[in-house]
Amino acid sequence: MSDNRTETTERTDRERSADSSASATETDPLLRIEDVWKSYGDEEVLRGIDLEVDRGDVEVLVGPSGSGKSTMLRCINRLTEVDSGHIYLDDLDVTAADTNPDAVRQQIGMVFQDINLFAHLTARKNVTLGLRKVRGFSKEQARQRADSELERVGLADQADSYPAQLSGGQKQRVGIARALAMDPEVMLFDEPTSALDPELSNEVLEVMQGLVAEGMTMVVVTHEMRFARGGASRITFLAEGEIVERGPPEQLFENPTHERTAQFFESIRHD
Amino acid sequence: MSVTDALGIDASWLRESTDDLGQGLAVIAGVAFWGWLLTRWLYDWTLGRWGIGPGAGENFLSSAPFERIADALEGSVAALGPIRIPVGWLGSLADGAALAIDIAPALATGAWYTIVLTAVSIAIGFCIAVPVAVLRVYGGPFRWLALSYTELIRGTPLLAQLFVLYYGLPLAVWLNDVDVVGRGFVPEYAFWIAIIGFTINGSAYQAEYIRGALESVDEGQLTAARAVGLSKIEGIRHVVLPQTLRYAIPAWTNELVYLIKYSSLAGFITVPELYYRASRIASSTFEYTPIFTLLALVYLGLVLSATNLMTHVERRVAVPGIGQVEGRQQGTGD
Amino acid sequence: MDSVVPVTELLTAILAEQLLFVGEETVGHYFGEDWEFVYRNREYLLWGTVITIVLTLTSILVGFLAGFPAGAIEAYGSGYSQAFVRKFGVLLRGTPILVIMIFTYFVLPIEIVLGAAEFALRSIEFLLGPTPFTVPTDVPEAFLAATIALGLRSAAYQSQIFRGALGSIDEGQMEAARSIGMSRLETIRHVMVPQALRRSVPGFQNEFTIVLKDTSIAFAIGLGELLKRSHDLFTQQTTAVLEVILFISLLYFVLTFGTNRTLDYVSNRFAIPGESS
């Protein structure tokens, strides 16, 4: 069943990238988050989050540390389980008890702050592992797919390098290729550049901009305001587990309606 | 799902309380164990010798009632039908209790030998290990001396080393010439040979991980010590070693545990420690299962006490943020 | 075991014929009577060495087969399975190997052991298909008891090595693998275990030499390994005690040294490029 789904989405991917700008005005929610609550012990990390992300949109989550951004991302692919509320991917209730999290995760790619490449595998094998074990690709199919994904992130020449032989930026690009190879409908980025030196961040941000141009649906937690300004369809400002303000980048950067939002962007600007 | 959810809180509470219960039982077991050992030793050295009470090495309690219970239970087993099996177990338990009372004095005396062997060997071994390790790291042209000592000792079995000392060298003759050996409180020569063997063996292992700890202390530390005007020896003594020895405590704990367990090999050269006494009794009574179970329990008690003690020591002397070295991984890991 | 015996027999014969061509008188002439005694009994001692090596290998194997899953349970298991493995481990690690061995020799009924071995073999065959092995029934009881004792004790330590190695691998890799849809078991199998095995080599090296040296404790149950045979010899000719023991100590030393170098090589061979091992 999950294979069927991916096939169809692959087709819609193509169609979508053709006319993504045209359909952007209508609402076509791919990801729907409804009243999600999560707490660790006594600490409430998410307090009733509601959010809809349209197909082809790039949602940037910003907010002070501890505001629940990363937890929100991890709930979407069930690395963290919600306490209550629902998350839908298309018509699939991700959070339902009888939904197999492994099947959900195939459709949702994730890129981590600390990259987490498989240390014992080459760049290429990092990408092929999921294709072989989860998607059941043949060795040759997987290899071809991996090489084309590595090409997509500009690392065709590093396919045989091990993680320890790569720079931080290169590693993170392999991490992106690994997630892309599974043909996800949505890509989640959890502070993908915050573990990297500034000069290495750029190559990762460029790859992400490329995905934006391709029309990939993305949810991005980041402190990179250049990316937020240039790439985001909408920015959501979270504080203390609640959405304070949400809107297009210009609005939040230039005319925030809430005092907290203004303060936050002010403090970022001084960094 | 909802059921496990509902039970989730209860189950975790249950686990916590059983943990508490387990801890409480462990403390009681520990107190009983050491209470028994200390009472026995003190009695045997003092009142027992003076002829008060049942006498040194004799039972405090009589095992007869337990034997009678066991006999009664086992005699009735055939008639009982369905509850035959648990009653049979009770019977063997009572049997075991009777046996435990019988051999307890022997085990307590054996444990004393085991503890003394271990403690003395590890202490002297440590005094040898420190200079050997320092020689190995800072010895320049004499490094190979320390290297061959540790590698040769670590490369051969402890039992073979004990045999060399016991059968191969004329140590027994020399020791027998010493008047005090084997008189009064001073044990027989085999005991001294075992001490020598364990000391040498332990010193090589201790030297090896003190070396590891020495090497893990930043080289800049010694340079800094020299810079403030200390000599090399002084720098090693006052700056490097104090850090090193803290690093080495976990490994040292493992060594202690190792020696407690391997002191059982002294039984092969007739030192009357725990294993020797137990196996003597076993081979005359053929009650292998209960005797060796009891023996294992006593060793377990000693080993777990040692680990707990060392964990305590480690916490007391810890410098915040300083790591540790692996030993020969003979700790209990708990 | 059946096939091991003739092969080793052949090897010993070849070694004795080809390498040790020096006459006994020559040895006696140059090194004295006691060394001649050692030399005369070289084959007897060489056989002891073979038994020592085979015992080490079988024990390490048993230790690995039991210790590796135990380590995984300690690292990833929960509840009763974990508690059981922990308690059993503490029991085995807190008891002298001598006592464990006496236990397996005098207390453990041989039928239970063979039954368990049969069961283990059947389950392996169930998982991996038919294997060419059968449960050996003609192995001396002492050898079996020593293998089980050393094997179980080693399993208790190997489980700690693997547990530590598994724990040392960054949890993030587990999450990354889960995030592309791999199951927990697949992740452990394809991501965690391959790395953990590499990281356990130093601990394994240590464990291997400990087992090798502790085979000498099978002396206690009369197994004719190296130390037992040397004991037989020097009680026969008491003047040669030192010579015999020094000789077998040399053999032990060569074996431990060789083991360490071999595992160093294995470690380098399988090191992950770019990572310092």
UniProtKB/TrEMBL annotation, chain A:
Residue ranges annotated for the ABC transporter domain, each copy included: 31-265
Record has ATP-binding as a keyword: yes
Database matches in Gene3D superfamilies: P-loop containing nucleotide triphosphate hydrolases
Pfam hit, one: ABC_tran
PROSITE patterns for the chain: ABC_TRANSPORTER_1, ABC_TRANSPORTER_2
InterPro entries documented for this protein: AAA+_ATPase, ABC_ATPase_HisP-typ, ABC_transporter-like_ATP-bd, ABC_transporter-like_CS, MetN_ABC_transporter-like, P-loop_NTPase
Keyword Cytoplasm: no
GO MF, any single term: ABC-type amino acid transporter activity
Region described as Disordered: 1-27
Bias (Basic and acidic residues) ranges: 1-18
Compartments where found: Cell membrane
Topology class, membrane: Peripheral membrane protein
A single Gene Ontology CC term: plasma membrane
Keywords: Amino-acid transport, ATP-binding, Cell membrane, Membrane, Nucleotide-binding, Transport
Family membership: Belongs to the ABC transporter superfamily.
Protein name: Glutamine ABC transporter ATP-binding protein
Naturally occurring in which organism (per UniProt): Natronococcus pandeyae
Automatic annotation (TrEMBL), chain B:
ABC transmembrane type-1 domain segment(s): 111-310
Pfam families associated with the record: BPD_transp_1 (PF00528)
Primary site of residence: membrane
Protein's recorded name: Amino acid ABC transporter permease
Localization: Cell membrane
GO BP: any one term: amino acid transport
Top-rank taxon, per record: Archaea
Protein keywords: Amino-acid transport, Cell membrane, Membrane, Transmembrane, Transmembrane helix, Transport
InterPro entries recorded: AA_ABC_transptr_permease_3TM, ArtM/GltK/GlnP/TcyL/YhdX-like, MetI-like, MetI-like_sf
Annotated GO CC locations: ATP-binding cassette (ABC) transporter complex
Annotated signal sequence range: none
Membrane topology: Multi-pass membrane protein
Transmembrane segments: 21-43, 111-139, 151-169, 189-207, 256-276, 288-306
GO molecular function, one term: transmembrane transporter activity
Family: Belongs to the binding-protein-dependent transport system permease family.
Automatic annotation (TrEMBL), chain C:
Location (main, coarse): membrane
GO cellular component assignments: plasma membrane
Biological process per Gene Ontology, one example term: transmembrane transport
Domain of life: Archaea
Membrane association type: Multi-pass membrane protein
Keywords tagged on the record: Amino-acid transport, Membrane, Transmembrane, Transmembrane helix, Transport
Subcellular location: Cell membrane; Membrane
Domain ABC transmembrane type-1: 49-256
A Pfam entry, by short name: BPD_transp_1
Spans traversing the lipid bilayer: 44-68, 88-108, 238-258
InterPro entries reported in the protein's UniProt record: ArtM/GltK/GlnP/TcyL/YhdX-like (IPR043429), MetI-like (IPR000515), MetI-like_sf (IPR035906)
Family: Belongs to the binding-protein-dependent transport system permease family.
Stated name of the protein: Amino acid ABC transporter permease
